[in-house]
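PT: before anyone asks, these are the final sequences, not the draft ones from last week. 530 residues across everything. Please model them as a single complex and drop the result in this thread when it's through.
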Amino acid sequence: MEVQKDARISAIDIAKHFGDKASGTLTPVLDGVSMNIQEGEFVVILGPSGCGKSTFLKILGGILPASSGKILIDGTDYGTQVPRELLKRFGFVFQNNNLLQWRTAAGNLKFMLETMRLKGEAWQGRVSEMLEVVGLQDYQDVYPHELSGGMRQRVGIARALVHDPDVLIMDQPMGALDAITRQMLTFELLDIWHKTQKTIIMVTNNVNEAIILGNRVFIFSQLPAKILQEIPIDIPFEERNHQVFSSPRFLELREKLNHHVRATLSLEEPA
Amino acid sequence: MKKKSIRKKKGIDWMSIIPPWILLAIIFAVWEIAAKTTGISEYILPPMSKIIHGVITKFPGELLPHFLLTVRVIVLGFIFATILGISLAAIFSQFNIITKAVTPVIIWLVITPMITLIPLMTLWLGYDPVLRTYVVILQATPIIALNTLNGFVNVDNDKVELAKSVGCTRMQRFTKIVFMNAMPQVFTGIKLGSIFSTIAALSADIVSGNAGLGFKISQFTKYNNVYMSYGTIFLVGLIGLTLYKIIERIERRVVLWKN
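LR: through. Structure below.
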């Protein structure tokens, strides 16, 4: 795949395997995944569970190195591993919120500022600002174990935003939530994306979420993961609300996505 | 939305305070009745009232200097052992291979009763009472280090990934994630350390002689002052229990996220 010159992030031919050949434990997880992500785009990766979607995100977010391929950020080639200095430009939202249980909601946000050595009042001000963005301005001093699952995940999102990254990487951010909270947070996330103008890359296994949020949806195959389809979602932002579920375009896209997802699975029923 | 803050229980938790006292009262009562009705010799089972009365009357004059010595040995030794145990664990945990190498050695030291070294240590260091503090340090450090090390090396993969995603330095990873994450295990180690310290100090008293509550226990027993032996043994238990409870209080303030 070609590198697009103006892309914010380009992942070219990313492959990843765990284990090694010598001990016979070699497990290929990603097999030549390539994508160009533009600034301000909301890209969704959809695929069956255990298909290596999360591994791909961890490579983009600098948590894991790729086995081969290259990552380009603003046109600069960084090889298989995003360097440490660039991690400030990413915010990672984990599947199970991954909050530090010994820190309050605000404390969890401050953790980012401390480790990244972002000092000064402006940064401190962003802590309450970001908690406000996720609707938790009154819960600054509350510990994670006193918050509901949805609230914890919101803190996780605020934490990923507090250092003002260019790119938000979200690994099934709503995977552990109940259906009602999940839908509510989906629309909130759409709103956050609109307000903050961040580039977002999100992994999900939920087709509705993918259509409501995404500009483009990539469908991953089962292990080792390849991109099977790239589907643009042409529903304008204004129409992405609670009424969208009954719009013909939404239903059409859902059918299309479901069809491709079904194709990746031989046993499981699509969601 | 209303302002939310941490809901801490301000009131006293009577349900965890009353039951132990009731049980203690029952034990004392049964003891008292058994001693007075079964006809067992007072040299084997002195009545509880006599034990308590004896300790209270003899505490200010006869027991106090020994009490102070033993408490000092326990507390000093325990504090040094806590600092030493946690520091050693912090250093060991930085290198996987060292952790693997030292763990069996630490367990070996935990098992070794350090009082067995007192005769040898007396040979090198003489009869200095500071010797007892060394014994306490030697006995309590390994158990604290063992638990702490266990906490330092078993960090959730999620937390490691969080550290990587923000590009934590080695130091940041240790102070902001590994250390805090290990707090529950660190406190388990410290609590066990307090128990080990008390036992070690008492054993050191008995072996070294001259002074200390352990010395008094063996002295009372030698002169057939059985009720005072029992009384002093209870007093020692009280020291250990108090120390344990103090640490438990600190733990509840630090490890907020448990229960």
